[in-house]
Amino acid sequence: MSRVVKKAPSVCTDLPLDNTDICNKLHILGQLLRSCFGPSGRLKQVHNNIGGHVVTTSSSSVLLPAISSSTQPFINLIITSIRNHVSRFSDCGLFAAILCLALIEHAKQSGVRGNVAIRLNKHTLGLCTRYLHQEDCGCKVKLDFCSSHNLITLAHSVISSKPASVLTETEALHISKLAVQAFLLTVPCNNPGIVSLGRIVTVSVEGQSVLDSAVFPGLLVDIPDVLGIFKVENLPSNPLRMVLFSVSLAGDLSELGNGTIELHHGADTDSQILDQLLEIGKQVVKDEVKVFVCQKVIHPVLQQYLRSHGIIVIERLGIALMEPLTQLTGAQPVATLHTTIPPKAYGNVRDLSFRHFGSKTMLHLHPPGESEICTMVLCHRNETMLSELKVVCQKTEHVLRLTMREPSALLGGGCTETHLAAYIRHKSMNDVVETASALGCSQSEYLLGVEAFCRSLESVAAALEHDGGNSLIDLTHAHRWTLPADVMQEHMEDGLSLCGCGLVENSPSMKWSYLDTKYPEFSPAPLSRDTTVQPRVLDSFAIKLNALQVAVETANIALDVRYIIQDMN
């Protein structure tokens, strides 16, 4: 009989944001995330206390799961909300987390009552979203699919924001162009009605230069046994018939499926199963199949039989490539070896060729016609960099896909945050009395709440600087600027050339203010519509807007928590 342990009472924490320990942990979490933010963010090594794989990253999709607190449910509440955004949108996780924590911190510092702060955050979020949806929004850019320039800029902004990939500017631009090329290959050209995007299959090659990375229409399959492959030059030039098996062809009894197996005395099961496999081989030879693919293992005797008849044999394809291969070839996976293969199960490939990347050799299956399946081969110098590059490219693909639904982008480099802060300050000053009365708060509380929200936005923009420089805002367009640490204040004009997004140039009449100081309220002037000047940094409109909403809503939930009841058993 097991020992009876007395049940421990639950722990109840009243007003968690008044708890010093919780506030200290939130402050440390904010510092940790801010230090990772942006292209010059500092890297973090993630590992557990019992060993295992060590990951070097600055990506929120890797960091946030690693820092979940088993002892503090209040922090888990915030992290879980941000992780949900990242799982749906792939990007802007750090932006959402940093803004959320800043909103909580500035709301506490402002002294505004919690319920009032929540109402003010909701009101100010509404001002932001309405402004961002306006056609004349000063920080929104329309994406033109007739030109790839803005798409490449958007992709480059995502890729360059992850320093653990360790890319030079040339390499980052090369990967950005490949990401856009791969994305465009997945977009159907002549399909009317509802558009269904294709797939990008990513293949990693360690030890090669990043500039060796490439994109190919069709599918590349890893071939470990190149010598066992029939010469592709001997194959006919017309489309090649292909068959695809999802069931194991290794000849094991355990692979025959569920049910009862009856064996007669003296029966040789191995021979009978092999005979059945060879019957499949005879049928595919008779049906003039040239490519034989199996998700699992193929019996060596069947392999030899097929190759002796000039058939390309590919085994151990893996489940991940099954769906792309069926889309590419039109083949229907055969899930049994007890019936003849129906004609409709066969697919086609136009051609086969070998692709070599270092020591890795892959078989390139060319699509029989227009196909939305392509393969991106990513190369890098070591495993850590390659792993981060693969994560970044998957994020980039998701960001580019969302542009199909919302063909807009927001200015990057912190300019959207500072522009929004200046707009909200100016907008809120016009109707202080009416709005404060409608929100059920005093005018001073209203102004304090708006200022806390704007300070939070500006603190996110300032978090992009990690090298000792200062973040500034110009008092004309309200864009963010960076003043390097080695530039004296009296020579400020010489140290500022372009704003964070690259759209605004320095001019003699321009004035600036430090982001952490109070500056006069003003209405941001619209930018000239000079099409020759293009932004250098862009963020996805749909993703950043959702991240903004998640950050505010999560902060409001945190501000509204009165008790934490934690079961200690």
Helical percentage? 40-55%
Q: What is the beta-strand fraction?
A: 15-25%
Number of helices: 16
Low-confidence stretches are: none
The mean pLDDT is 87
* C-alpha-based Rg, rounded: 30 Å
Shape: globular
Structural class: alpha+beta
Distance between the termini: 20 Å
- Main beta sheet strand tally, sense and closure: 4 strands, mixed
Order of the strands making up the biggest sheet: 10-9-8-11
Number of beta strands:
20
Overview of this protein structure:
The model has no long low-confidence stretch (mean pLDDT 87). The radius of gyration is 30 Å and the shape is globular. α2 packs antiparallel against α3, α7 (169-185) packs across α11 (383-405) and α13 crosses α14. The protein has helices at residues 20-34, 60-66, 73-89, 93-110, 114-133, 149-160, 169-185, 269-286, 300-308, 322-329, 383-405, 415-429, 432-439, 443-462, 492-495, 541-560, and strands spanning 11-14, 44-48, 51-57, 140-142, 199-206, 214-217, 219-222, 240-245, 291-294, 312-314, 347-349, 351-357, 360-366, 373-380, 408-411, 470-474, 480-483, 512-514, 538-540, 563-566. The two termini are 20 Å apart. A four-stranded mixed beta sheet has the order 10-9-8-11, sandwiched between helices. It has a three-stranded antiparallel beta sheet with strand order 4-15-19. It is an alpha+beta fold and 569 residues long.
Entry keywords:
single chain; 569 residues; alpha+beta; four-stranded mixed sheet; three-stranded antiparallel sheet; 16 helices; 20 strands; 41% helix
